Amino acid sequence: MPIEDLTLRLVAGILCYMVVSYVVGLIRWRTRSRGHPLPPGPRGLPIVGSVLHMAQAEMWKAHQNLCKVYGDVVHLSVLGKHIIVLGSQQAIVDLLDKMSAATSDREQNPIIELSGQSFNFALFPYNHWWRRHRRVFSQHVPPTVPEEQLLLQEQYVGLFLRKLLTSPAGFRDHIRYAFTATIVKLVYGVDVAESDDPNVALMVRALEGVQGFTSGRVLVQYLPILRHMPLWVPVLGSQLRELAGWRAAADEVKQGMFDKTQDDLTQGHQNTSVLANILQELDEDANIVEEHLLAKNVCLTAFEGASDTTFSTIQAFFVAMALNPDIQWKAQAELESVIGMYRLPTHRDRASLPYVSAVLKESLRWHNVMPLGVPHYTSEDIEYRGYFIPKGTVLIANAWACLHDPDVYSDPDLFLPDRFIRNGNLDPSVRDPSDFIFGYGRRACAGQAFAEANMFMIIAMTLHVFDITPPLDEAGRPIQIQPKVRGSFVVYPADCRCTIRPRSAQAEALIVDSVGELTT
């Protein structure tokens, strides 16, 4: 047979296969979708789809602009992947709360393991292993924060005040210390040194893995096969080395802190930490290797979840106070009226301090720490508003857009705690930022109450004894800082410089005297 005939037959066969595959795929798609279309969205480029849209800075604003054009449920195709952006409270509640049985999964990507985040059960698939982790976490960090955990928070916030008094310029490090020391003591029963603690440095290094794998700049995230490339490959090699560094830090923290707690128990030392309690409650017939892995995962997830988000929120609070002295004075007046200047506020005062509580709510709303949250993933085909959302679709809830909706929050770019106050009390009719900050449906953060209580104590105790004003230049003139952010998955104030001084000699004495009381 002539070579030309063979070539023609081969080409014809390939074309026939492509046509049949396309028709079969089309029939299957129409059967699955029942004739319902995908939600509206931009067409995108051939093959890569809307990949350029997903590469923009401040993605939450880019998504918000898309929703203004296409509505509050927008479909994007990125390298063949279906992505749905949810731009309103209604869409988020409908899909992530009311339909959570089908929308509580997480997309799995090799970069989670490569960056050392495979311990984080917030990223686990929605399955029995995740439920076991969630159950253990909720047992030991319950929705109603136990008294001993609240007292622990007060102790470390008191130490935070002392650090602010002695070296106010290092307030960012002091914030990090306050949260890190509190959660490490709670979870592992380990005391953190007040400076240069190697455990803290290692934990911070492990936390960098979160920002790294969510930054969108790591090539392996899009082409997992690249994980097998040699380290000498330009750009990719440096990224793989960085991923390996994050993973090594996370592994060392996970095992090292576990060993410290286990040694305490073996030697008969008193340790009432979360990890110690988990280990002491193990059933004799349990699979020890599996149970130990679960305990390590739960504890390190608790640390990671409580660290970066609260660290960012409190930085934003300091920026807001420096920019809004009238709000600061109003909160301080409430504190003086309720508490006086003879003691520091405690968790028992929280219900009597609605305006300070409003300052916390506005800090969470104004500076949305995770503007797009952790994406959900559909575990089955679903229909919503006449649209078809296929299994394996990434669902992105634009929390930032909801918390900056001018129809709900007037002047959303301004820091206005009074929006949460009516007749001197918190207004329950105003949308609570925590409904968006701490996740949705079955994936909502189980540590929300602990985190909110800790942030409240830092805000209340700081305002009671310190004035926060703008930074000064070399001539002593105030510098006008701009409330901009940096980061992608978790965002931070780009400029959080400020001046921190004791409100009075009485306030300074109160700090010094109260620290001793809190630590005894």
UniProtKB/TrEMBL annotation:
<dbReference type="InterPro" id="IPR002401">
    <property type="entry name" value="Cyt_P450_E_grp-I"/>
</dbReference>
<keyword id="KW-0472">Membrane</keyword>
<comment type="similarity">
    <text>Belongs to the cytochrome P450 family.</text>
</comment>
<dbReference type="InterPro" id="IPR050364">
    <property type="entry name" value="Cytochrome_P450_fung"/>
</dbReference>
<dbReference type="GO" id="GO:0016705">
    <property type="term" value="F:oxidoreductase activity, acting on paired donors, with incorporation or reduction of molecular oxygen"/>
</dbReference>
<dbReference type="Pfam" id="PF00067">
    <property type="entry name" value="p450"/>
</dbReference>
<keyword id="KW-0560">Oxidoreductase</keyword>
<feature type="transmembrane region" description="Helical">
    <location>
        <begin position="6"/>
        <end position="27"/>
    </location>
</feature>
<comment type="pathway">
    <text>Secondary metabolite biosynthesis.</text>
</comment>
<keyword id="KW-0812">Transmembrane</keyword>
<feature type="binding site" description="axial binding residue">
    <location>
        <position position="445"/>
    </location>
    <ligand>
        <name>heme</name>
    </ligand>
</feature>
<dbReference type="InterPro" id="IPR001128">
    <property type="entry name" value="Cyt_P450"/>
</dbReference>
<dbReference type="InterPro" id="IPR036396">
    <property type="entry name" value="Cyt_P450_sf"/>
</dbReference>
<dbReference type="GO" id="GO:0016020">
    <property type="term" value="C:membrane"/>
</dbReference>
<keyword id="KW-1133">Transmembrane helix</keyword>
<keyword id="KW-0479">Metal-binding</keyword>
<dbReference type="GO" id="GO:0004497">
    <property type="term" value="F:monooxygenase activity"/>
</dbReference>
<dbReference type="GO" id="GO:0005506">
    <property type="term" value="F:iron ion binding"/>
</dbReference>
<dbReference type="InterPro" id="IPR017972">
    <property type="entry name" value="Cyt_P450_CS"/>
</dbReference>
<keyword id="KW-0503">Monooxygenase</keyword>
<keyword id="KW-0349">Heme</keyword>
<keyword id="KW-0408">Iron</keyword>
<protein>
    <submittedName>
        <fullName>Cytochrome P450</fullName>
    </submittedName>
</protein>
<dbReference type="GO" id="GO:0020037">
    <property type="term" value="F:heme binding"/>
</dbReference>
